[in-house]
Specification:
With 333 residues, the chain is an all-alpha fold. It has 15 helices and no strands. Helix 2 crosses helix 3 and helix 8 runs antiparallel to helix 13. The longest helix has 31 residues. The C terminus is likely disordered.
Length: 333
Protein backbone atom coordinates (compact mmCIF):
# COMPACT_ATOMS: atom_id res chain seq x y z
CA UNK A 1 0.00 0.00 0.00
CA UNK A 2 2.84 2.37 0.79
CA UNK A 3 4.43 1.69 -2.60
CA UNK A 4 1.08 2.32 -4.31
CA UNK A 5 0.59 5.63 -2.47
CA UNK A 6 4.13 6.65 -3.38
CA UNK A 7 3.53 5.81 -7.06
CA UNK A 8 0.29 7.82 -7.11
CA UNK A 9 2.06 10.77 -5.47
CA UNK A 10 4.72 10.71 -8.17
CA UNK A 11 2.26 10.55 -11.08
CA UNK A 12 1.55 14.31 -10.80
CA UNK A 13 -1.96 14.15 -12.30
CA UNK A 14 -1.99 17.36 -14.42
CA UNK A 15 1.13 16.33 -16.30
CA UNK A 16 0.12 12.69 -16.57
CA UNK A 17 -3.26 13.67 -18.06
CA UNK A 18 -1.36 15.70 -20.66
CA UNK A 19 0.77 12.64 -21.48
CA UNK A 20 -2.34 10.57 -22.02
CA UNK A 21 -3.81 13.32 -24.18
CA UNK A 22 -0.82 13.13 -26.54
CA UNK A 23 -1.31 9.35 -26.72
CA UNK A 24 -5.02 9.88 -27.43
CA UNK A 25 -4.21 12.39 -30.19
CA UNK A 26 -1.95 9.81 -31.85
CA UNK A 27 -4.65 7.15 -31.64
CA UNK A 28 -7.37 9.51 -32.89
CA UNK A 29 -5.26 10.59 -35.86
CA UNK A 30 -4.67 6.90 -36.62
CA UNK A 31 -8.43 6.31 -36.76
CA UNK A 32 -9.04 4.78 -33.30
CA UNK A 33 -10.75 7.69 -31.57
CA UNK A 34 -13.68 5.82 -30.02
CA UNK A 35 -11.89 2.70 -28.81
CA UNK A 36 -11.11 2.32 -25.10
CA UNK A 37 -8.50 -0.30 -25.97
CA UNK A 38 -5.58 0.25 -26.19
CA UNK A 39 -5.74 3.82 -24.77
CA UNK A 40 -7.17 2.92 -21.37
CA UNK A 41 -5.46 -0.47 -21.12
CA UNK A 42 -1.97 -1.13 -22.43
CA UNK A 43 -1.15 2.49 -23.33
CA UNK A 44 -2.22 3.63 -19.87
CA UNK A 45 -0.02 1.03 -18.17
CA UNK A 46 3.01 1.71 -20.35
CA UNK A 47 2.84 5.49 -20.01
CA UNK A 48 2.01 5.54 -16.29
CA UNK A 49 4.77 3.09 -15.36
CA UNK A 50 7.33 4.96 -17.45
CA UNK A 51 6.28 8.27 -15.89
CA UNK A 52 6.78 6.93 -12.36
CA UNK A 53 10.18 5.50 -13.32
CA UNK A 54 11.36 8.73 -14.95
CA UNK A 55 10.05 10.79 -12.04
CA UNK A 56 11.89 8.59 -9.54
CA UNK A 57 15.18 9.05 -11.39
CA UNK A 58 14.69 12.80 -11.56
CA UNK A 59 13.79 13.04 -7.87
CA UNK A 60 16.88 11.04 -6.91
CA UNK A 61 19.11 13.29 -9.00
CA UNK A 62 17.52 16.58 -7.89
CA UNK A 63 16.77 15.86 -4.23
CA UNK A 64 18.70 18.85 -2.88
CA UNK A 65 17.38 21.20 -5.55
CA UNK A 66 13.80 20.05 -4.92
CA UNK A 67 14.16 20.77 -1.21
CA UNK A 68 14.69 24.41 -2.17
CA UNK A 69 12.10 24.62 -4.97
CA UNK A 70 9.39 22.39 -3.43
CA UNK A 71 9.72 22.51 0.37
CA UNK A 72 7.17 20.21 1.97
CA UNK A 73 5.38 19.43 -1.30
CA UNK A 74 3.87 15.93 -1.35
CA UNK A 75 4.41 15.46 -5.09
CA UNK A 76 8.13 15.41 -4.33
CA UNK A 77 8.02 12.69 -1.63
CA UNK A 78 11.79 12.29 -1.49
CA UNK A 79 12.51 15.99 -0.98
CA UNK A 80 9.66 16.33 1.55
CA UNK A 81 10.91 13.38 3.59
CA UNK A 82 7.89 11.18 2.92
CA UNK A 83 10.04 8.54 1.21
CA UNK A 84 13.62 7.30 1.46
CA UNK A 85 16.09 7.14 -1.41
CA UNK A 86 15.96 3.34 -1.32
CA UNK A 87 12.17 3.34 -1.63
CA UNK A 88 12.23 5.76 -4.55
CA UNK A 89 15.01 3.77 -6.26
CA UNK A 90 13.15 0.46 -5.92
CA UNK A 91 9.91 2.03 -7.12
CA UNK A 92 11.65 3.56 -10.15
CA UNK A 93 13.29 0.26 -11.09
CA UNK A 94 10.05 -1.70 -10.70
CA UNK A 95 8.03 0.84 -12.68
CA UNK A 96 10.62 0.87 -15.46
CA UNK A 97 10.47 -2.93 -15.69
CA UNK A 98 6.65 -2.87 -15.84
CA UNK A 99 6.65 -0.25 -18.60
CA UNK A 100 9.24 -2.15 -20.65
CA UNK A 101 7.53 -5.52 -20.21
CA UNK A 102 4.10 -4.09 -21.07
CA UNK A 103 5.55 -2.34 -24.12
CA UNK A 104 7.09 -5.49 -25.58
CA UNK A 105 3.90 -7.40 -24.72
CA UNK A 106 2.09 -5.07 -27.15
CA UNK A 107 4.69 -5.38 -29.92
CA UNK A 108 8.38 -4.82 -30.52
CA UNK A 109 7.85 -1.28 -31.83
CA UNK A 110 6.18 -0.10 -28.63
CA UNK A 111 8.81 -1.93 -26.58
CA UNK A 112 11.60 -0.19 -28.49
CA UNK A 113 9.98 3.21 -27.89
CA UNK A 114 9.78 2.44 -24.16
CA UNK A 115 13.43 1.33 -24.06
CA UNK A 116 14.51 4.54 -25.81
CA UNK A 117 12.41 6.65 -23.44
CA UNK A 118 13.88 4.91 -20.38
CA UNK A 119 17.40 5.52 -21.70
CA UNK A 120 16.63 9.16 -22.43
CA UNK A 121 15.10 9.76 -19.00
CA UNK A 122 18.25 8.30 -17.41
CA UNK A 123 20.46 10.50 -19.59
CA UNK A 124 18.30 13.50 -18.71
CA UNK A 125 18.59 13.10 -14.94
CA UNK A 126 21.78 11.18 -14.17
CA UNK A 127 25.51 11.78 -14.69
CA UNK A 128 27.63 11.72 -16.71
CA UNK A 129 25.32 13.20 -19.35
CA UNK A 130 22.77 14.88 -17.03
CA UNK A 131 21.04 16.63 -19.90
CA UNK A 132 18.77 18.53 -17.49
CA UNK A 133 21.71 20.82 -16.64
CA UNK A 134 22.56 21.58 -20.28
CA UNK A 135 20.30 24.54 -20.97
CA UNK A 136 18.70 24.58 -24.41
CA UNK A 137 19.55 20.94 -25.09
CA UNK A 138 17.36 19.89 -22.15
CA UNK A 139 14.40 21.92 -23.42
CA UNK A 140 14.79 20.41 -26.90
CA UNK A 141 15.10 16.79 -25.77
CA UNK A 142 12.56 16.71 -22.93
CA UNK A 143 9.59 16.75 -25.35
CA UNK A 144 10.98 13.48 -26.73
CA UNK A 145 9.74 11.96 -23.48
CA UNK A 146 6.79 14.23 -22.76
CA UNK A 147 5.32 14.37 -26.30
CA UNK A 148 6.92 11.86 -28.67
CA UNK A 149 6.92 8.94 -26.23
CA UNK A 150 3.15 8.81 -25.48
CA UNK A 151 2.28 9.80 -29.06
CA UNK A 152 4.39 6.99 -30.53
CA UNK A 153 3.16 4.45 -27.99
CA UNK A 154 -0.38 5.28 -29.07
CA UNK A 155 0.31 5.15 -32.80
CA UNK A 156 2.51 2.04 -32.77
CA UNK A 157 -0.10 0.21 -30.68
CA UNK A 158 -2.42 0.23 -33.70
CA UNK A 159 -0.22 0.55 -36.80
CA UNK A 160 3.31 -0.46 -37.85
CA UNK A 161 4.71 2.90 -38.99
CA UNK A 162 4.24 6.67 -38.96
CA UNK A 163 2.51 8.40 -41.84
CA UNK A 164 3.65 11.74 -43.24
CA UNK A 165 0.79 13.55 -41.51
CA UNK A 166 1.62 11.92 -38.19
CA UNK A 167 5.24 13.03 -38.46
CA UNK A 168 4.16 16.61 -39.17
CA UNK A 169 1.68 16.50 -36.29
CA UNK A 170 4.33 15.17 -33.93
CA UNK A 171 6.81 17.85 -35.03
CA UNK A 172 4.23 20.58 -34.41
CA UNK A 173 3.35 19.27 -30.96
CA UNK A 174 7.05 18.94 -30.18
CA UNK A 175 7.80 22.56 -31.08
CA UNK A 176 4.84 23.89 -29.14
CA UNK A 177 5.89 21.90 -26.10
CA UNK A 178 9.44 23.27 -26.28
CA UNK A 179 7.85 26.71 -26.00
CA UNK A 180 6.01 25.56 -22.92
CA UNK A 181 8.81 23.59 -21.23
CA UNK A 182 11.19 26.55 -21.41
CA UNK A 183 8.94 28.26 -18.88
CA UNK A 184 9.52 25.49 -16.33
CA UNK A 185 12.88 27.07 -15.56
CA UNK A 186 11.14 30.09 -14.00
CA UNK A 187 9.53 27.85 -11.40
CA UNK A 188 12.78 26.09 -10.51
CA UNK A 189 15.14 29.04 -10.82
CA UNK A 190 16.00 29.48 -7.14
CA UNK A 191 17.23 25.94 -6.58
CA UNK A 192 18.82 25.71 -10.03
CA UNK A 193 20.87 28.87 -9.41
CA UNK A 194 21.85 27.80 -5.90
CA UNK A 195 23.20 24.44 -7.07
CA UNK A 196 24.77 25.62 -10.31
CA UNK A 197 22.27 24.02 -12.69
CA UNK A 198 22.76 26.12 -15.85
CA UNK A 199 19.30 26.10 -17.37
CA UNK A 200 18.36 28.06 -20.49
CA UNK A 201 16.85 30.80 -18.33
CA UNK A 202 19.96 31.19 -16.19
CA UNK A 203 22.20 31.17 -19.26
CA UNK A 204 20.27 33.61 -21.41
CA UNK A 205 17.90 35.56 -19.20
CA UNK A 206 14.21 36.28 -19.08
CA UNK A 207 13.63 38.13 -22.35
CA UNK A 208 15.56 35.69 -24.54
CA UNK A 209 13.79 32.74 -22.93
CA UNK A 210 10.38 34.29 -23.61
CA UNK A 211 11.38 35.21 -27.18
CA UNK A 212 12.52 31.66 -27.99
CA UNK A 213 9.38 30.28 -26.39
CA UNK A 214 7.26 32.57 -28.60
CA UNK A 215 9.12 31.40 -31.71
CA UNK A 216 8.52 27.75 -30.80
CA UNK A 217 4.81 28.33 -30.12
CA UNK A 218 4.43 30.11 -33.46
CA UNK A 219 6.47 27.63 -35.52
CA UNK A 220 4.80 24.59 -33.99
CA UNK A 221 1.33 25.98 -34.55
CA UNK A 222 2.17 27.06 -38.11
CA UNK A 223 3.28 23.53 -38.98
CA UNK A 224 -0.19 22.26 -38.07
CA UNK A 225 -1.57 24.35 -40.92
CA UNK A 226 -0.05 21.78 -43.28
CA UNK A 227 -2.56 19.26 -41.96
CA UNK A 228 -5.73 21.23 -41.29
CA UNK A 229 -7.94 22.56 -44.11
CA UNK A 230 -8.14 26.35 -44.19
CA UNK A 231 -11.92 26.27 -43.90
CA UNK A 232 -11.78 24.19 -40.72
CA UNK A 233 -13.16 25.69 -37.48
CA UNK A 234 -9.92 24.63 -35.80
CA UNK A 235 -7.93 27.32 -37.63
CA UNK A 236 -9.42 30.32 -35.75
CA UNK A 237 -9.17 28.31 -32.52
CA UNK A 238 -5.44 27.79 -33.01
CA UNK A 239 -5.05 31.48 -33.84
CA UNK A 240 -6.76 32.47 -30.57
CA UNK A 241 -4.69 30.01 -28.53
CA UNK A 242 -1.41 31.18 -30.04
CA UNK A 243 -2.39 34.82 -29.57
CA UNK A 244 -3.13 34.20 -25.89
CA UNK A 245 0.17 32.37 -25.43
CA UNK A 246 2.13 35.21 -27.05
CA UNK A 247 0.33 37.76 -24.87
CA UNK A 248 1.28 35.77 -21.77
CA UNK A 249 4.90 35.53 -22.89
CA UNK A 250 5.02 39.30 -23.45
CA UNK A 251 3.80 39.81 -19.89
CA UNK A 252 6.30 37.28 -18.55
CA UNK A 253 9.19 39.05 -20.31
CA UNK A 254 8.60 42.09 -18.14
CA UNK A 255 9.86 42.55 -14.59
CA UNK A 256 7.49 40.86 -12.15
CA UNK A 257 7.27 39.13 -8.81
CA UNK A 258 7.59 35.37 -8.66
CA UNK A 259 3.92 35.14 -7.73
CA UNK A 260 3.04 36.95 -10.94
CA UNK A 261 5.34 34.67 -12.92
CA UNK A 262 3.65 31.57 -11.57
CA UNK A 263 0.24 32.96 -12.50
CA UNK A 264 1.35 33.84 -16.04
CA UNK A 265 3.03 30.48 -16.57
CA UNK A 266 -0.07 28.67 -15.28
CA UNK A 267 -2.21 30.69 -17.71
CA UNK A 268 0.07 29.84 -20.65
CA UNK A 269 0.06 26.16 -19.60
CA UNK A 270 -3.75 26.25 -19.60
CA UNK A 271 -3.65 27.58 -23.16
CA UNK A 272 -1.37 24.67 -24.11
CA UNK A 273 -3.85 22.20 -22.62
CA UNK A 274 -6.65 23.90 -24.51
CA UNK A 275 -4.80 23.53 -27.79
CA UNK A 276 -4.18 19.83 -27.10
CA UNK A 277 -7.85 19.25 -26.22
CA UNK A 278 -8.95 21.09 -29.37
CA UNK A 279 -6.66 18.94 -31.53
CA UNK A 280 -7.92 15.78 -29.85
CA UNK A 281 -11.52 16.87 -30.43
CA UNK A 282 -10.76 17.71 -34.07
CA UNK A 283 -9.20 14.34 -34.92
CA UNK A 284 -11.78 12.41 -32.89
CA UNK A 285 -14.72 14.12 -34.61
CA UNK A 286 -13.04 13.71 -37.98
CA UNK A 287 -12.65 10.00 -37.34
CA UNK A 288 -16.26 9.67 -36.22
CA UNK A 289 -17.65 11.59 -39.19
CA UNK A 290 -19.19 14.61 -37.46
CA UNK A 291 -20.44 17.53 -39.54
CA UNK A 292 -18.67 20.85 -40.08
CA UNK A 293 -21.28 22.57 -37.89
CA UNK A 294 -20.55 20.21 -35.01
CA UNK A 295 -16.83 20.83 -35.47
CA UNK A 296 -17.42 24.58 -35.29
CA UNK A 297 -19.57 24.35 -32.16
CA UNK A 298 -17.08 22.18 -30.28
CA UNK A 299 -14.08 24.28 -31.39
CA UNK A 300 -15.76 27.53 -30.32
CA UNK A 301 -16.81 26.04 -26.97
CA UNK A 302 -13.34 24.71 -26.16
CA UNK A 303 -11.64 27.92 -27.26
CA UNK A 304 -13.96 30.05 -25.15
CA UNK A 305 -13.67 27.78 -22.13
CA UNK A 306 -9.89 27.52 -22.02
CA UNK A 307 -9.38 31.18 -22.89
CA UNK A 308 -11.72 32.19 -20.06
CA UNK A 309 -9.99 29.89 -17.56
CA UNK A 310 -6.57 31.15 -18.64
CA UNK A 311 -7.69 34.76 -18.32
CA UNK A 312 -9.12 34.05 -14.86
CA UNK A 313 -5.78 32.59 -13.76
CA UNK A 314 -3.99 35.62 -15.17
CA UNK A 315 -6.18 37.96 -13.13
CA UNK A 316 -4.99 36.29 -9.94
CA UNK A 317 -1.66 38.08 -10.24
CA UNK A 318 -0.72 40.29 -7.31
CA UNK A 319 1.53 43.35 -7.17
CA UNK A 320 5.21 42.61 -6.81
CA UNK A 321 6.05 41.82 -3.23
CA UNK A 322 8.91 40.03 -1.55
CA UNK A 323 8.86 37.11 -4.01
CA UNK A 324 11.46 38.30 -6.50
CA UNK A 325 13.55 36.55 -9.11
CA UNK A 326 16.99 35.57 -7.91
CA UNK A 327 19.76 38.09 -8.78
CA UNK A 328 21.37 35.69 -11.27
CA UNK A 329 18.38 36.05 -13.56
CA UNK A 330 17.68 39.73 -12.91
CA UNK A 331 21.24 40.60 -13.99
CA UNK A 332 20.71 38.90 -17.36
CA UNK A 333 17.25 40.35 -18.02
Amino acid sequence: MRAARLAVAMLRPPLFVLFMMFAAIGLAQAGHAEELHPLMTTVLIVVAAWFVSAGALNDLADELIDRVNFPGVGRRPLASGEATRQEVLLLGAAAGFVSLAAGFAVNWRVGTVVAAALALSAAYSLPPLRVSARGGLASFLLPACYVAFPFLVGVFSVQPSLSRDQMILLAGLWMCFIGRILLKDFRDVQGDAQFGKRTFLLRHGRRTTCAVSAICWTAGSASLLLLIPWDSALIPSLAVFVGCALFGLRELARESSRYEEWAIIAAVAMIGRGMAVALLAYYSMLDLGHSAGQHALVAATLTGLFTWVSWSVLQERKPAGDLRMVPAVEQQT
